[in-house]
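Thread amino acids onto this structure.
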């Protein structure tokens, strides 16, 4: 009797699978032909993976900022803020001192404010504060980066070497002061005349000279101007016009000189435009530029600058017994 198959009848001839057999032994004296090489396409030997060119990578060079355009913009903002604060101080002076019905001319009011540090120092301090407040958002939007980070403010660097930097500033103050004894210095320059107006004005000049003034001047000259001038020579390197050696030995010294000239001229009126004090101020500027480049920190230059100014004011404080005898400055 035939056994029932649920899958139905099957042809044993078709369904039978051949049994594997052992490979035949090679025949002695017979050479087998070489294995044929088939073309590399589907169905034969596998093809090698296609060669793909690597993507072209553009070298990302650091941006040369600040450049000279940024520096021009910063000084433009500074001029605008100085003008606005002078106008505001003049209007406020007329209103508070002479009342709303004052007939005092603007030119006279400006002269009074400029001659009295009780009025001029707060006005200048307000201008410096507005300059910084306006510059931060403007340049951060241009640079897409932090204001202090881009300018290499680096407060931690200044804090780490604070006493060394202060010692440099104090030493520079004593050295410059000693050199002044051998040079023809002007008698009763405007800065001393301003200090002789009142004790309050003298103390305001001192506080301003060791805080806001060095901070803003370092930001302007060693934060913007000096690196933007050096970046001009670095740009020449990228164009193939010069090389790193030219930038180091020619570009950087030239940038220091070009930074020092306007820095000294900024203080020319304070010292009656005399060449001897301007030469000393230029020497201080060179020292501050070197500190900025060696430490790579604008804040480090602020510490040195403040310490230098402190020495200058300390001598005046001692000479006048704490600004109590300002008439001694005229002797």
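Threaded sequence (331 positions):
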């Amino acid at each position: 009797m035939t056994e029932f198959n649920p899958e139905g009848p099957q042809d044993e001839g078709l369904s039978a699978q051949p049994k594997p057999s052992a490979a035949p032994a090679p025949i002695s004296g017979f050479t087998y032909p070489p294995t044929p090489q088939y073309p590399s396409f589907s169905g034969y030997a596998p093809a090698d993976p296609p060669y793909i060119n690597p993507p072209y990578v553009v070298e990302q060079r650091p941006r040369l900022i600040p450049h000279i355009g940024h520096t021009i913009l910063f000084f433009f903002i500074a001029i605008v803020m100085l003008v606005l604060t002078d106008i505001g101080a003049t209007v406020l002076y007329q209103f508070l001192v002479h009342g709303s019905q004052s007939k005092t001319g603007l030119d006279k009011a400006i002269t009074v404010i400029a001659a009295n540090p009780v009025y001029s120092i707060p006005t200048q301090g307000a201008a410096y504060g507005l300059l910084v407040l306006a510059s931060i958002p403007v340049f951060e939007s241009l640079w897409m980066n932090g204001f202090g980070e881009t300018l290499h403010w680096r407060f931690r660097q200044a804090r780490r070497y604070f006493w060394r930097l202060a010692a440099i500033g104090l030493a520079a103050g004593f050295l410059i002061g000693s050199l002044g004894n051998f040079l023809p210095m002007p008698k009763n320059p405007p800065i001393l005349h301003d200090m002789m107006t009142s004790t309050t004005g003298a103390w305001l000049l001192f506080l301003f000279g060791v805080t806001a003034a060095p901070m803003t001047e370092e930001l302007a000259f060693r934060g913007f101007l000096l690196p933007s001038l050096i970046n001009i020579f670095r740009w020449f390197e990228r164009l193939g016009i010069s090389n790193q050696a030219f930038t180091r030995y020619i570009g950087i010294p030239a940038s220091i000189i070009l930074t020092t000239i306007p820095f000294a001229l900024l203080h020319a009126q304070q010292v009656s435009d005399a060449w001897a004090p301007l030469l000393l101020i230029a020497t201080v500027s060179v020292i501050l530029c070197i500190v900025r480049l060696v430490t790579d920190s604008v804040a480090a230059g602020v510490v040195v600058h403040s310490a230098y100014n402190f020495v200058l004011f300390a001598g005046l404080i001692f000479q006048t017994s704490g600004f109590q005898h300002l008439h001694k400055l005229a002797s």
